[in-house]
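ok here's the first one, seq then C-alpha cells
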Amino acid sequence: MDLVDGIYKLTKVLPGEERYGLVSQMRRCAVSIPSNIAEGKARGTTKEYRHFVQNAYGSGAELETQLEICVRQNFVSSEQAKEVFALLDQVVRMLNRLIQKLSPQRSNP
C-alpha cells in the first residue's frame, strides 16, 4: 500500500497531458498489485493464489517500465523517483519469494 501511495504522489507532478496516459496506467498498475494479492488469497486454493501473485508480479514489472519512461522523458528526476523505485524493488522481491513459497515442491528422484 505504501507503493500505491508513492505512485499517487509521484504521478501528481506529471504533465497534465499524461493524465490519461502514464498517470492512469501507473496508478492502475500500482493498485493492481495489492488487489491481485487480496483476490488471490480470497480464492482459497494455493494454485489460484499463486496465479494472482504472479499477476501482481507482472504489474510490478509494468510499473518499473513506466517509472523508467517517466525518468527518461524528464517528467520526474531520478531523485524524485528514487523512493518509489526502492519501494517497488522491495515489493517485487517479496512477490518473488511468495511465488517460490507457493510453487509446488518438486521431489528429487
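and now the second one, same deal
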Amino acid sequence: MDQLNLIIPELFLTTSIMILLMLGVFYKNSFNLIFKLSTIVLLATFILLFNHSVDTSATLFNNSYTIDYLSLFMKALTLVACIFVMLSSFDYIKLIGINKIEYPILILSATLGMMIMISSYDLIVFYMGLELQSLSLYVLVSFNRDSYRSTEAGLKYFVLSALSSGLLLYGCSLIYGFSNSTNFDLISQNIDQFNTGSIFGIVFILVGLAFKVSAVPFHMWAPDVYEGSPTSVTAFFAIVPKVAALTVFIRFLYVPFINLVDQWQMIIIFISLASMILGAVAAIGQTNLKRLMAYSAIGHMGYALAGLATGSNEGIQSAVIYLSIYLLMNLGIFSCIFMMKRKDIFYEDIQDLSGLSKNHPIISVCLLVLLFSLAGIPPLAGFFAKFYVFMAVIKVEMYTLAIIGLITTVISAFYYLRIIKIIYFDDPKEIFEIDKNLGLKVSLFLSTIIILIYFIYPSLLIDMVSNINVI
C-alpha cells in the first residue's frame, strides 16, 4: 500500500481523464466546464505529488518505475508549466474555434505520458509514456481542422516523429539484445563497453531523443510545426515536453549508459554545438515570431545539452536550472503573443510589434525584460542560467564548448535586440485590443517579475536543484 501512495498522482490523473471524457460526451457544449475542471485536475495532481516525503527514493513494478527527487522536481515543473499554459490560452482557444472538449483531455493525456517518461526506469515503460505523449501531440498540432497550416504541421510532425520513434525503438531492441534486459540498472551491469552493437543502440536512442527535443541535426520539423500549429499548442510544445525529454536524456545517459560515457559524450557535444550554432544563425532572417521562437528553442536546448555533456552532477544540475528558467521566459513570451490581437484576429509577425511601446508600455516593458533575459544579459535570470552551464562546462575543461557557446550567445543577442528596436523605435501601428483574460495577465506579469528579481535570491533554485544526484 505504501508503494501505491507513490503513484497516486498518476492514478488520479488517469482516472480524471476517463471521467472528464465521459462528462464531455454526455453533456453537450461543456467545453468551459471540462477546461476548468482539467486545470483543477492539474492543480490537484501537483498537490498530490507531495503526499509523501520529497526525500523518498523508491522503485516500483519490479524496478521499472522510480520515484526520486529528480522525478518529483521535473513532474512539478511539468505540471506548473502546463497549468500556466492552460490559463493563458483559454481566450485564444475560444476565439479561433478549437474549443472542443477533446482539447483539454488531450493536454492531460500528454501530461500523463510525460509523467510516466520522467519516472521510467525501463525501456518498455519509457516507450509507453513516450507514445502516450506523442499520440496526444499529433492530434493537438492538427487540431485546427479549418487551417491548412495546422493540418500540414500535424502531418509533418506525425511523419518525422513516427520515424524518430522507429529509430528509438530499434535502438532499444539493440540494447535489449546485447544486455539481455530492458531495466536501466541491469543494462548498466550487463552492457559491454567494447561491444559495437551496444554503441549502435545508444546512437539510435540518442537520435530518437534528439528528434523529440528538436536538437540539430534532427530539428527540421520544429520551425514548421511551431508556425503552423495553433499558438496555444505551440506554447504547450515549446514549454512542457522539453522537461520530460531532458529528464529522459539524464536517465539514459547517467544510469544504463554511465559506463559508456566516452562513447556518448562526443555525440552530445556535437549535438549541443550544432544546436547552439544553428539556433543563433538561422533565427536572424525570421519574420514570424513563432518561427523565431522555434529556432530560439533549438539554440536553448543546445545550452541545456552542454550541461549534460559534462558527465558530472554539477552539469546535470546546471541543465535543470537552465531548463527551469527557460520555461519561465517562454511562458512570458507566449503570453505576449496571445495579446497581439485586433478585432479577434491574432498577429504573429515581428513587424506587428512596431512601436508597441507607444500604445502598450507595460507589455513592452515585459517583452523587454524577457527578450534581454533570453539573450543572457545580466542581471536577469537568463544570464544566470547560461552562467551555471558555462561554469559546469569549464570545470571539466571543455573550453571549446564554452567558447563556442559564448560566441553563439552574442550572435543570438542580435535578433532579440532587433525585436526590442522594433518595439521602441519604429513607428507605431494600430493599437492591440486589451485582453481581459486574468490568467493571461497573471502568467505574463508573474514570469516577468520572477525573471527580473531572480538575481536577489538566486540560491533558492540552486538549493532546490542541489538535491538532484544521479551519479
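notes on #2: The chain has one domain: 2-465. The longest helix spans residues 148-179.
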